[in-house]
Design a protein that fits this description.
The chain folds into 2 domains: about 5-170, Jelly Rolls; about 175-300, Arc Repressor Mutant, subunit A, CATH 1.10.10.60. Helices cover about 50% and strands about 15% of the residues. It has 14 helices and 9 strands. The chain has helices spanning about 5-10, 90-95, 105-110, 120-140, 145-165, 165-170, 175-190, 200-205, 210-220, 225-240, 245-255, 260-270, 275-280, 290; strands spanning about 15-20, 25, 35-45, 45-50, 55-60, 65, 75, 80-90, 115.
């Protein structure tokens, strides 16, 4: 693997193995470039104290904590205890969750903290294997596949979602407004490349344009157009980094009539042209997390 790929993946993923020590230690993962990361901490033996946004939770062996990008946390690990920490950037998290309709509920799950106190043995074994695969892939310079690392973390999230009971609770339904916003999000993921108008989204949701606008602005403090624009810009940034396609090809794939229209749209909502962003992304230390982020936490 070439050097640029190796450096890039370590900007977007991390792993730490915490082996037994003779003294207590405290880790504070959300620092520096890791501030915009989602993390999983797995206590494999012993005891620890998790402090997540001011809430303290005593962890025992085989306990797992998931902290979203927006969350803050620290872990005080007792002497003789072991565990490991996995993390991915917000950018990679959005990428691995994908844009299919099936990923909507998993995306919602990824935006809130989850704590599992010693789930069943079968799940722990499965989780351990996935986590070990993530660690091995990331730590081996001859491997370090971004796709593999994203796949491992995606499967980890899916497992946490299922065992936490979120899958069942999602199936039971939620409030009318939240359901409508989830449906809107679902439709955006499917149709944003087709450049649907807000009127088309409203019609598909069986509500008026004004009602959709009112619900979005009242609940999310953003208009429907802003939410769609953010999704388009994120996808454009993702493709500018990940693909070698020309600006013309990217414009076509994202539903724009030509490269000029796409470039004007991109600059209007991101502050730079597609070409300038592509040059900048080759130097990840110069790119702020804000310039990469898409506000998934704004959605229900």
């Amino acid at each position: 693997m070439n050097q640029s790929v190796s450096v890039n993946i370590h900007v977007h993923a991390r792993s730490e193995i915490h082996e037994t020590t003779l003294s207590h230690k405290k880790i504070e993962p959300k620092r520096g470039i890791y501030e915009e990361f989602a993390h999983v901490f797995f206590l494999t033996s012993g005891n620890a104290l998790l402090d997540a946004a001011g809430q303290q939770i005593e962890m025992q062996a085989d306990s797992i904590a998931y902290i979203p990008v927006s969350g803050s946390f620290s872990v005080a690990i007792e002497a003789g205890s072991t565990g490991y920490l996995l993390g991915v950037s917000q950018y990679l998290l959005i990428e691995l969750l994908g844009s299919s309709a099936e990923s909507v509920l998993l995306r919602e799950f990824s935006e809130r903290s989850t704590y599992l106190d010693a789930p069943d043995r079968h799940f722990i074994e499965e989780f351990h294997n996935l986590a070990q695969g993530f660690i091995n892939e990331l730590s081996d310079d001859k491997r370090g596949s971004r796709m593999a690392i994203a796949s491992y973390f995606s499967l980890i999230l899916m497992g946490l979602w299922r065992v936490s009971g979120s899958q069942e609770s999602a199936d039971q339904g939620v409030g009318e407004i939240k359901t409508l916003l989830q449906s809107f999000r679902h439709l955006v993921e499917i149709h944003y490349r087709e450049r649907w108008t807000i009127q088309q989204y409203a019609a598909a949701l069986l509500v008026s344009h004004d009602r959709l606008h009112s619900i979005c602005t009242r609940t999310l403090s953003k208009t429907p157009s802003q939410l769609v624009q953010e999704r388009v810009i994120f996808e454009a940034k993702l493709r500018l980094e990940r693909s070698g396609s020309s600006i013309q090809q990217l414009a076509h794939n994202l539903g724009f009539s030509d490269a000029t229209t796409f470039s004007h749209y991109f600059k209007r909502y991101s502050g730079s042209t597609p070409a300038a962003f592509r040059r900048m992304i080759k130097k990840p230390h110069l790119v702020s997390a804000d310039s990469l982020s898409f506000g998934h936490a704004d959605w229900p």
